[in-house]
Amino acid sequence: MDSPTDAPRSKKPSRIQTRNRKRILEAALDVFSVEGYRGATLDQIAQAAGLSKPNILYYFDGKEAIHVTLLNRTMETWLEPLRRLDPEGEPLDELLRYIRRKMEMSHAFPRESRLFANEILQGAPRMRPHLEDGLKPLVDEKAALIARWVADGRLAPVEPRHLIMSIWATTQHYADFEAQIAVLMPEGNVREEALTHVETMFRKLLTPASG
Fold this sequence. Notes:
Blueprint: H1 15-39, H2 42-49, H3 53-59, H4 63-83, H5 91-108, H6 110-121, H7 128-151, H8 160-176, H9 178-184, H10 190-206
């Protein structure tokens, strides 16, 4: 087990420091996604990481600092596909590509999705500034883009913000309610079936009426 040293932290972390920080964040993600913020403890995170509690506190100031780091990382990853909506692209193709990417992320990052959902259910006490300063301007920008596509007749009439939230709700359901899905759909290729269903549903919603 590695122990912290008395030397001041360098600007560039060592390989051991980088490894231990990643190890802590991975362990904390497991703990937070199951226990939530209130139920999680530093002792649980230390045990999951295979490090001592003082070692954890060498890298992070406390439980909240670890939680906020994970939330910020999740937000950056989660919002990247929305940022990529191309104003010059074909609207339906752009939105379906976004939906497919969100479905892929729900499959690849279920712990991150549950971490974020737990934070929002608690009233976003640690993420509200990020929601106001980072998420809202991005959603405003993309909602205006979708509204322009609708006004130009390139998409069927939809309310842009409700469309975005519907995409989030539908795609992230497969991460947040993974245990329920396993009971209700124990057989078949749920991932591919879900992708086909969700894509077909939004394609029908967004395709302009011919003529």
